[in-house]
Amino acid sequence: MERLLIKEISNHEGEKITIKGRIFNIRNLGSISFLIIRDYSGVVQVVASKDAEVNSGDIVLVEGIVKKDERAKGGYEMKAEKIEIITKSKETLPFDLEKDDINLNLNTLLDYRVLSLRHPKVQSIFRLYDLLLKSYDEAMREEGFVEIKTPKILGSASEGGANFFQVDYFDKKAVLAQSPQFYKQIMVGVFDRVFEIGPVFRAEPHFTTRHVNEYISLDAEMGYIDNFYDVAKTLNRVIKKMFSQMGIEDVPEEIPYVKLSEIRKIIKEKYNYDIPEETDIDPRGEELAGQYAKEEFNSDFIFLTHYPIDYRPFYTMSDGKEAMGFDLLYKGLEIATGGQRINEYDELVESMKRKNIEASGMEFYINAFKYAIPPHGGWGMGSERIIKQILGLDNIKEAVLFPRDVKRITP
Questions:
Q1: 209: domain CATH number?
Q2: Which of 31, 123, 267, 286 has its Cα between 20 and 30 A from that of 222?
Q3: The whole model's pTM is what?
Q4: pLDDT digits 0-9 by tens, 2-24
């Protein structure tokens, strides 16, 4: 008999059907047992004889009659006539996957990731994440962007600094990509508008609730812009489309803009907090900027603009002191960084000299500008941070299937 998905059983009341799935829980009552079985489409209660030799975690095939029962989850249950074990679980589960809340500390949650991912509440995080990736793809294509895939093993660091991972590459040294920056700028000269969904690697020794060392970045680059506001406005539209597809309708038509120098003053005067001088804005400053956006504009989003150029990469357009760009904060956490890039060859070379950036390994990138690249800009956006903020997760690692941080490289 052909397998039927659990979500379809309501259309087969009184019929004999076959389902396949995992037993998530067993409750014994007198001479019968109630098996809670899940497949990717749903969950159903199966009534079986108590002598059925099955355990929680087993993968089973069940043949039986569909019966309407308002007390059962979904309003229907199955009366088993045959249960066949497809794969037997060898060990008892270390925690109960049937409870509504998994209630594990973060280390246990991640140490047993291969099992905790089976919990419905954890699964729901990544079903939303799947929708996020789909919605970004669709929104970008609607805006006329072409999807590209760029190398992740590079000859030199794309963002400069020391926060890159060095790897052996045959007889050479290579680095893991901190971003697709060089390649997406080059591709503006090909397609005008490009985007990428892909991994990036940052060797930042931060052990916080907002940092991981490998994450999925939602990148974009667009040509023929007049200024960085063109980039921000496009990102605004993309975010609004993405969130709408996820059932969230509170993204403003025009996300408010505040200069960084102004938000520092506002935070000092309104919340009596001094953002440390040695940073552009710290995590507490971002939280308060988010609070200000909510109180002043009734917005969960705010663009902070005109960062000091010293805090921005060498390819960033500036007026000499301030960068022509932005950070986008969502509920008090930076989720995207973007702005206008330098598109003139001589200006790019001069910027590299000012920041003491060696050209070795990036000649291909620099030389592309000898052949005219249009005025352009773009953004990089952390997908997992968006999920963290939407769901109010305590730690970004909960939004990563198998997170990597300074202390964790398995599972």
A1: 3.30.930.10
A2: 286
A3: 0.94
A4: 999 999 999 999 999 999 999 99
